[in-house]
UniProtKB/TrEMBL annotation:
GO molecular function: serine-type endopeptidase activity
Active site residues per record: 111 (charge relay system), 142 (charge relay system), 338 (charge relay system)
Residue ranges occupied by any Peptidase S8/S53 domain in the UniProt entry: 102-372
Protein's UniProt name: Subtilase family protein
Keywords noted in UniProt: Hydrolase, Protease, Serine protease
Family as reported in the entry's similarity comment: Belongs to the peptidase S8 family.
Transmembrane intervals: none
Domain of life of the native organism: Bacteria
InterPro entries: Peptidase_S8/S53_dom, Peptidase_S8/S53_dom_sf, Peptidase_S8_Asp-AS, Peptidase_S8_Ser-AS, Peptidase_S8_subtilisin-like, Peptidase_S8_subtilisin-rel
């Protein structure tokens, strides 16, 4: 039997007496309460679960992987020497001149963990949770780099963090030490951050590994054409599961602030080979309600979309030659939409700080942050001919 992720809405439990209305029918019902389960199921089990009113989605467990950095000419992959001032990414998004710092905002990074001893995270309370079984801590470096861009403190005179006033960060290790994981871990990580920890911002630089799922089926003896069909069915089911979880999280905004969820669009396009070699945003960035982020590069004159960056993203941010925290200490330059998404997550934290200091009702706070994030993006720094479908509403900007 195959393993499946089961998404339950525990608020749908009927705890009413024999002559009372069900709780979901009463005025002032509790918000949706997500629970993620993983079970081995056969077709009969699936049919039975599908009739359970608590079950919102059932999806085969699929492999996921980090959105791996891309080698780019001019983007140094080795540790960077200390520079004076802020990185080009921090400057491009206007964080270096913003009066906001992310103070009072809780951010979450769902990735490979974090190097908690790195000087970039000095003074930050890190709440770590491992969803992989490999233990807390980052052995890969990807999560450390992403976290550094969001809320890292200055390292040897270089400002790397967009929201360096954040003092509490949630670190969900959803990818193991080899950079791989599974969809149930991602769903559980989102549920933990948004529902249990009330994160204001969640950042993910992760993609569903569709080719990896096909390989698993073929290695298990399934013919290649059937394996491809099974992968597409599993992908569709997981899209529905992510969408259902996002809907449940949004339903909680009546009771809580809500969470802005940001994700990397993916690095699978190949425009440097052929301008038409581009694909759309990958999951989970493509899920309903997730802000997908494209990567920008900085040539001599004006911004362009990186050739690897997937199209149809919502917004864009610096993603080539991004200097941030290096595993074990110091700095490292990497390129990818993985590096772009943390810039947007950091800016979301700045907007959260601004919204929380105003009279905006808590029930509309998340929507206000998303509106500010998208409406304030700029397009006046792009090179002529950049396709709006590739850069989204524009370059993210700090308040």
């Amino acid at each position: 039997m195959a393993k499946y992720t089961i998404l339950r809405d525990m608020s749908r439990q009927n705890v009413a007496g024999p002559f009372e209305a069900a709780i979901s029918e009463r005025e002032g019902a509790a918000p949706s309460s997500a629970r993620i389960e993983v079970e081995s199921l056969d077709k009969r089990d699936i049919r039975t679960l599908a009739r359970d009113p608590q079950v919102r989605a059932i999806a085969p467990v699929m492999p996921v992987t980090l959105v791996r950095p891309v080698d780019m000419e001019g983007a140094q992959p080795e540790p960077q020497a200390a520079a004076t001032g802020a990185t080009w990414g921090v400057q491009a998004v206007g964080a270096d001149v913003s009066t906001r710092t992310g103070s009072g905002v809780t951010v979450c990074v769902l990735d490979t963990g974090i190097d908690a001893g790195h000087q970039a995270f000095s003074g930050v309370t890190l709440v770590q949770k491992d969803f992989t079984g490999s233990g807390d801590g980052d052995k890969q470096g990807h999560g450390t780099h992403c976290a550094g861009t969001i809320f890292g403190r200055d390292v040897d005179g270089t400002r790397i963090g967009v929201a360096r006033g954040v003092t509490r960060a949630l670190i969900g290790k959803v990818l193991g030490d080899d950079g791989s994981g599974s969809t149930d871990g991602i769903l559980s990580g989102i549920q933990w951050a948004a529902v249990e920890q009330n994160a204001h911002v969640i950042s993910m630089s992760i993609g569903i590994d569709l080719p990896g799922f096909v390989r698993q089926q073929v290695e298990g003896g399934m013919p290649a054409d059937l394996a491809a069909s099974a992968a597409l069915q599993a992908y569709r089911a997981n899209v529905r599961a992510f969408d259902a979880l996002m809907e449940m999280i949004r339903s909680r905004e009546v009771f809580e602030n809500g969470s802005v969820i940001v994700a990397a669009a993916g690095n699978a396009s190949r425009r440097q080979v052929n301008p038409d070699f581009e694909i759309g945003v990958e999951m989970p960035a493509a899920a309903d309600g997730v802000i997908s982020v494209a990567a920008l590069q900085q040539p001599a004159t004006a911004l362009r979309v990186a050739p690897f960056s997937n199209t149809f993203a919502n917004i864009s941010a610096p993603g080539v030659g991004v200097v941030s925290a290096r595993l074990g200490g110091g700095l490292l330059s990497l390129s990818g939409t993985s590096m772009a998404a943390p810039h947007v997550a950091g800016i979301a934290a700045l907007w959260w700080e601004q919204i929380l200091t105003t009279a905006v009702p808590a029930t509309t706070a998340r929507a206000a942050v998303v509106a500010k994030l998208l409406a304030s993006a700029t397009t006046n720094t792009f090179a002529p001919g950049v396709d709006p479908a590739d850069r989204g509403v524009g370059l993210v900007q700090a308040p």
